[in-house]
Amino acid sequence: METILNKLRKAAPAAALLLTVAAGTALQGCQKTNGNDATGATASALSSDAASQVYVAPGKHDELYSFLSGGFNGQVSVYGLPSGRLLKIIPVFSQHAENGYGYSEESKAMLQTSHGFVPWDDLHHPKLSRSKGMTDGRWLFVNGNNTPRVARIDLTTFETVEIMELPNSAGNHCSPYPTNNNEYVIAGTRFSVPLDMKGGTGDVSLDSYKDTFRGSISFIKVDQEKGDMDLDFQILVPGFDYDLANGGKGPSEDWVFFTTYNSEKAGTLKEVGASQNDKDYLAAVNWKLAAKYAKEGKAREMPANYYHNKMDKGTHTAKSTVKKKVRYLLPEDCPGLMYLLPAPKSPHGIDVDPSGEFMVVSGKLASAIPVFSFSKMQEAIKNKQFDGEKNGIPVLKYESVLAAEVKEPGLGPLHTEFDGKGNAYTSMFVSSEIVKWKLKDFKVVDRIPVYYSVGHLMIPGGDTKEPYGKYLVAMNKITKDRYLPTGPELAHAAQLIDISGEKMKLLLDFPTVAEPHYAQAIKADLVAPKSVKFHKLDENKHAYVAKKESDASVTRQGNVVRVKMTAIRSHMTPDNIEGVQVGDTVYFHVTNLEQDWDVPHGFAIMGANNAETLIMPGATQTLKWVPKKAGVFPFYCTDFCSALHQEMQGYLRVSPKGSNVPISFSTGKKKAASVALK
Asked: Please, which domain of life does this record's source organism belong to (predicted)?
């Protein structure tokens, strides 16, 4: 295998790298393990005391929370580090039968879009909120790649509390980057779309790609105290494909950088059409200047149609607002707003070192990693060292902004993060390794194999001013031979690597949920002390809350029956209900009366075609149910809550349509029938 890799590294870049992309599987086959036996490379890279370094004793906590994107499952997975223990799955863009998210009446609005109810998305990039360039543990922002959306997760509850759809966007991939004090979350489109500025996206011939298609970069303003998002304005940019983004620090903190590909503006067979130019571009955008232009009236307005969904803290209920317009800037009308830096063709990752001086671009098909200098970029702008323009945007000369190139780093560089000690680490997709190199001389100093085809890598705080340079997590795309077989669909994997010394050492493999793309991690003590234990019952403002058992009721209005129910260890009130008819729409509004940590209650009824609801202490959740036949239907608590959990159940009687059975309900002793509401 080593001979093959060396030959490929030294081969002519264009031919060899295209060949190795296709030959990736063959290279992985060379690294195959035999059962549980590690290869020599793994054995030499494995820390001698790995088990003790990742062991977290029973009752003890991990050092870090890590948040891994779920990719095509639309969720975020939370793991403790260094143990690799799965702590929680947070549903964001997907329905989740475990707790009723996306099924309950309170949460369904979170998944509304201009395309209707969309209970799925492709979640790629978690980004933690920041204060003074450092993660602050308040919120986690994530992107929906497929139906363009940005969501905010509240880290006091680990729940999705806000989702905003993005107009004029398709494939919201280079997203969501929070600026260093959460002034904005910035999101770029992967796919350009046809825009006419008067009516948004339109019906045009696909042959008109070069003339009518444009990209967009959305600037989402963030409330500094509450975290609430608002789409302030967009920049409509040339019709390239915008892949990934990252922002500056220190001297470059007013800037955000985007990798682009398809500078050819090819609309078909992009693997050929978008690989014609020798270079694509790194787009540099001065976000502070953009905000200034927008504030000073430079922004124009165009029609739009997008949803903004927000969970109300008091009612525990989401509401949707439909927005009908958006402001936009054109970079060609805004001097100094945007510049293009030539970069290796089809670049993927863009990463800025902790000092804010170096911008590292990973060209998937490049034989070297270019490192751009921010100070040289500023000097080149000042001296107008331009090499033409694209759509009125100046193109800087490659040599004028280049600090250095990292030579022979490996095959298929994708992403780079930093340890805060002068070292950079780059993932190599094709040669399946992590490569360590020095920022002072741009020389490779170490490499470690991973299994297999690593995509993103993450160092806790590795994209901030002060990384937590102890661990690195490699997120791998292929894991054959690594775990027990699970059928055709293989487990995805992460590997924890010790980077505290000169040589990288493998500590741990752990399987991950779905396909993680990127991750973020934060010291646990920035999050754990603020964790909500339960909701205060007296602050519950739900429209159908029952704060004590005497508030329970069953009422009818036409063919709608509302059940205000309470749950407490170990019974529900009411637990006997009669008078419901076939075809009625029944809403079970269940309030958990507990005011103690770790006592959720669930609710489910036989024949429900959505999901259960899981109600946290002090909260109210609603299950909608439409009975289709007469009979007696049991309902019960689905979450084990006490020794008498099994006894926490009841019955609902459904009579034929038009029956004269009156509404009645009870718990223990029968109560008088309630008066039907007109």
From this structure: Bacteria
Cβ–Cβ under 8 Å, residues 355 and 133 = no
| Helix boundaries (H) for 544-609 | none
Q: Mark the ranges of the chain whose per-residue pLDDT is less than 50.
A: 1-40, 675-678
Please tell me the predicted confidence (pLDDT) of residue 9: 44
User: Token match 């508030």: residue?
Assistant: 551
pLDDT at 576: 98
Domain boundaries, the chain: 11-195+218-530, 537-677
Measured between alpha carbons, how far is 78 from 66 in angstroms, rounded to an integer?
A: 6
Number of Cβ within a 10 Å radius of residue 471: 25
pTM for the predicted model, two decimal places:
0.92
**Bridge partners for 592 per DSSP:** 567
Give the pLDDT score at 35.
Answer: 40
CA distance 629 to 657: 9
- Tens digits of residue pLDDT in 63-78: 999 999 999 999 999 9
Q: How many CB atoms lie within 10 A of CB 292?
A: 13
Which CATH class, in words, describes the domain spanning 11-195+218-530? mainly beta
Distances (CA, A) of 109 to 37, 116, 186, 343, 523: 50, 10, 24, 42, 33
Q: What tokens were used for 300?
A: 């124009």
Q: Residue type for 284, please?
A: A
Specify the DSSP class assigned to residue 661. P
Q: Whole-angstrom Cα distance, residue 511 to residue 350?
A: 27
Distance CA 248, CA 133 (A): 9
The count of residues in the chain is 678
Q: Determine the pLDDT at residue 3.
A: 39
Inter-residue contact 610 to 103 (CB < 8 Å): yes
Q: DSSP assignment, residue 490?
A: P
End-to-end, the C-alpha distance of the chain in Å comes to 79
Tokens standing for residue 376: 């040289």
Q: Phi/psi of residue 38, each to 5°?
A: -80, 150
Whole-angstrom Cα distance, residue 550 to residue 667?
11
Question: Is the distance from CB of 612 to CB of 653 less than 8 angstroms?
Answer: no
> What is the structure's pLDDT at 499?
98
Instruction: Output the CATH code of domain 537-677.
Output: 2.60.40.420
**Residue 74 and residue 543: Cα distance in Å, rounded?**
30
Pairing of strands 433-438, 444-449: antiparallel
